[in-house]
Protein: HTH lysR-type domain-containing protein
Organism: Lampropedia cohaerens
Amino acid sequence: MRLRLLQMFVQVVRTGSFVAAARACHATQSTVSKALHQLEEEVGAVLVDRSTSPVRVTAAGEVVLAHALAMLEHAQQMRDAVAQLQGLQRGVLRLGLPPLGSASLFAPLFVTYRARYPQVDIELVEQGSHRLEALLVQGDIELAATLLPVPAALQAQFVMESRLVAVLAADHPLAERAEIALAELAETPFIFYEAGFALNAQLLDACRAQGFTPREATHSAQVDFVVALVAAGYGVAFLPELMVPQYRQRQTRFVPLAPAQGTWWRLALAWPRQRTLSAAAQAWLTLAQEALPARQVLKL
């Protein structure tokens, strides 16, 4: 039984859609459909109910899914073990990075990592922290940058912390302040990031701790678009201070949040607690420890 068939079946179950599974597998929808038919012929049972949307796994599919996940995990462990024996002469690093802060922090590490380990391929997934944590638990990626604290199923290596700044239109009444308390923004609509971003929940909790629930203007996964909405006067957004140099423009102002619960952005590299990291992932952690402490780390 080919692992590729199992990978496609797992993605169909996880996404509930042949179209989404095809995107995740970098294949066409017809290829995924044929793969699932072939797998069903091999096991002699229907694995998903195609009449529902999203598609639902059958009882037989549940059995196959459990074995498929175990087989895929064992296959990855085998590849990791071989890579370790080869001393990173070959290998794959399955890495997840969030849109916020990654350009400033991790882009230089890619260059150094490639120079040290030219035969190691980096498979990069870019999502919000919550989505990356789910991918870690599922085994789709091995290592990811995410916000602290991490779920109990993960362990983490601290990277850095940066205070959060409010991104305001230049004509906002608070735009020229040296510092702002979150509560002072209670009447300004909040522009949040998409649902997979851990910063959303952190900000909501911080606002509630200061006695209000913010009005949500909209959501977006594109930082450039979020800043453009602020410049147009649509609301307030938030960024870690280390990203400010990338987005300075005449139409916006960046005002630090007054120190309080939830007003700091704390980033870490995380991985599943029950899994042994590959040599490629261990090398990335080592490089991060070497390179990132030299950067400014802000303290409360």
Q: What stands out?
A: Residues 37 and 46 are 8 Å apart (CA to CA).
